[in-house]
Amino acid sequence: MAQPRRQAADRPGPRDHYAEITSQIVAALEAGTVPWRRPWEQDKAGSGPLSPRNGVTGRRYHGINVLLLGMTGLAFAGTDPRWLTYRQAEEKGWQVRRGERGSRVFFFRKLTLRDGEVGPDTGGEGDGTRTVPVLRAYTLFHASQVDGIPAFETPSVEEASWRTPEAAETIMRNSGVVFREGGDRAYYCPATDHIQMPPRTAFAAPEGYCATGLHELAHASGARHRLDRDLTGRFGSHAYAQEELRAELTSCFVGAELGLPCDIPNHASYVASWLHTLRQNKREIFRAAAEAQRMADYLLGFHPDHAWRAAEEARRDETAEAA
Q: Are 106 and 171 found together in one domain?
């Protein structure tokens, strides 16, 4: 006897990745943890992990994927930044160990729909030609979960000169933003386009001064003659919360590249405003991470060696896509 056809209403709908990830981050913030900050002790981790990258292609992960991989304990297990899919490991003759749990990352692409076409995440038929974003989830495994993968060779100073103690100073100097010292607060002033910093002696270590300076430089990147973001939000406003979240993520992304700490203390009201913003819009953390990546790339571009490396990677990626 034929089974009755399952009603459309009974079929499980597509997973809402935006809501799932936002809920995960909100839960961490509610528990008192800022999930994108690295929890290792800098003096026990050497130069610290590099930004996550694919273990086969060498491509760096960007935006929300840097945040998601950084939230895993595996990302902080050592100095190996490599991640790869099960299939990539298999094609190389390596083996993901039985029972290992993968980590999700996402890739976006744009899909053009014409009249009458139904696309993923569109919720119905098209009423004209339009472009819709499509979010795809993939599962990655960290190199430490894979047997047979060669040991990772940490790049030398010559290969990654932006991971030297002087790198942050180089970026701050080449940015063209004026830094002034004095007082007990660190802030960027849009009206005068300058960054005010406490005296260097007020910081426990030079890394703290640099990390704070880069955080304020992230705000300065929003000036009209730079990346042109809205910097008019007052403390406690939605716009202020959005900008502060982007600067926070930017400092973490830049810190990962430079090997700097990113555990800058934040007032409890900042966390409360982030929670309010994320609860209002499930896509906000994705947008914030994408914008923070653009801000981080802009700041890292002020280091000549990093700018050269980024240009080489871009040319290599374009060549691979064209092949």
A: no
The residue type found at 270 is Y
In the chain, DSSP assigns E strands to 53-54, 82-84, 95-96, 103-113, 130-142, 146-147, 178-181, 187-189, 194-197
Count of domains observed in the chain: 2
**Residue 235: which of 199, 298, 175, 185 has the closest Cα?**
185
Whether 171 and 111 map to the same domain: the answer is: no
The domain boundary residue, chosen from 153, 183, 210 = 153
CB 188 within 8 A of CB 213: no
When pLDDT is cut at 50, 70 and 90, the band that residue 37 belongs to is low
194 and 294 housed in the same domain: yes
**Under DSSP, is residue 226 helix (H, G, I), strand (E, B) or coil?**
coil
* Rounded CA separation 281/194 (Å): 32
H helices then E strands: how many in the chain? Answer: 9, 9
pTM score over 0.70: yes
Residue pLDDT, tens place only, 183-242: 999 999 999 999 999 999 998 888 889 989 999 999 999 999 999 998 988 877 888 888
pLDDT digits (tens, 9 = 90+) for 14-27: 778 889 889 988 88
Residues 171 and 79 both lie in one domain: no
Domain around 276: 158-323
Q: What order do you get walking across the sheet with 187-189 strand by strand?
A: 178-181, 194-197, 187-189
Q: Which of 153, 170, 190 is a domain's end point? A: 153
Q: CA 158, CA 36: separation in Å to the nearest integer?
A: 29
Task: Tokens 């180089």: give the residue.
Answer: 170
CB neighbour list of residue 133: distance below 8 Å, 6 or more residues apart: 108, 109, 110, 111, 121
- 322: helix, strand or coil: helix
